[in-house]
Amino acid sequence: MDKIEEVLTTLRRLIRATDLHSRQLVKTAGLTAPQLLLLQAIREHGEVTIGALAKEISLSQATVTTILDRLEKRGLVFRERSAEDKRKVHAYLTEKGMEIIRDAPTPLQDHFVKQFRDLREWEQSMIISSLQRVALMMDAEHIDASPVLDVGDLDRKDERNLPDDNAADDHGSGSDH
């Protein structure tokens, strides 16, 4: 295999690994990766505002709100206005939400983050530089993306668990992250 084939095969493996993990997550937990990350962030922080959640998981506030809407419809979270500051809304896990994340598999990026942090600084820099160059070569350096290993729109609904209302809203609504 020549070097070009090696690069393209490796890129395809990365895409497939992300896709397969995303499908497995939906199959086993009924959640997308962004939904799971959001639930975990709520669990870790307890009483937390939507803005703080958005910052924590590096998604736009609009995307987080859309994901929370879907999780709330499923009875996994609820939101309440702050008693001290009515402009703030806090998100909380329900008991059902706690059960779901307790049994959910580890997100793919958690495995990656652990291994990446174990690398030496020069190795981390080489990987970052190489991936940035690949993005440039694929004319992808200006595509807006968040640090969530998942495929598709980040605020899509899990078609398996939610009613098919507003299906047209799910295609293209993830452009703000």
UniProtKB/TrEMBL annotation:
One Pfam match: MarR
Keyword vocabulary terms for this entry: DNA-binding, Transcription, Transcription regulation
Name under which the protein is recorded: MarR family transcriptional regulator
Naturally occurring in which organism (per UniProt): Microbulbifer harenosus
Location of region: Disordered: 153-177
Record domain HTH marR-type: where: 4-136
